[in-house]
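Write out this protein's structure.
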Amino acid sequence: MDLPELAIAALGGTVSMQARNAGEGVIPTLTGETLLNSVPELTTLARVNVETLGLMPSASLDFEFLLSVLSWAKFQIKQGAVGVVITQGSDTLEETATFFDYLWDCDEPLVLTGAMRSAAQAGADGPANLLDACRVALAADSRRRGVQVVMNGQIHAASAVRKTDSLALQAFSSPIIGPAGMLIENSVRYMRPPTQRNILPLPQQTTQKIALLEVSLSADTLVLNNILDLGYDGLVIAGFGAGHVPGNWSDVIETIAQKIPVVIATRTGSGSTARSTYGFIGGEMDLIRKGALMAGLLCPRKARILLWLLVGCQRQHQLTSYLWEI
């Protein structure tokens, strides 16, 4: 039987972590080859090319490194892989998936997975997640769906997935729309068809800096006042409720928005910003009049990634056409 080709890249994260000595915290140590050995069943499903591209906690990943991983993944597709799986830490998994999804122009699936329990813990979920992710990457129905995250038996679209629990096995969810699919008795089952995606070109520059600030009760404007002087090229604000800020932030935002893009998202974790409901100073109608853009359903972290990419390919003028997508 001629098996399909599958590519796997290991970047590190909890899925690769063990403690070197008793009583010490776990750190990334397991290579991609070692992870592959934990799922022997996979050799009956595909011919696998596995590479260890990094051994680091996902909190230490950066855009430059992710661009190199993206290049590797696209090369695997050109070499004949029917899908690519990437393992990494869960802390930034939703952000990495979003970053790749804006740039992934292949019909073949790119699937990200990780673990909530280290390889040293009883009941480690890494092997099961890896096997599930590979099944998703190999499934014909996964084509033209862009980048997906597979965790705990569920399939999430990169545009919607968020980490909503710090330690639980069911840490990932897709607020409002729910998972795109799930694995049932080792079969990949989707609950909705693929949607049209708007792909960005690779950024022409990578030195741009996008600030992300969160509002809070009685927040001062010290950092906000210095955003321009600090050299930022864009600003995302995680606002109250449907996209609101304290009144003393409003005029400062107007000044900033005359120089760089300003996006207001909601810090709530679910739901959309508004456009035409609240008219008070610091409400969304006031902020829109002063030049800010509302993120819609995009969470603050995803909005920051989008803005970084748009500035990098000099398409920040197209920001509004992306913000209300999910």
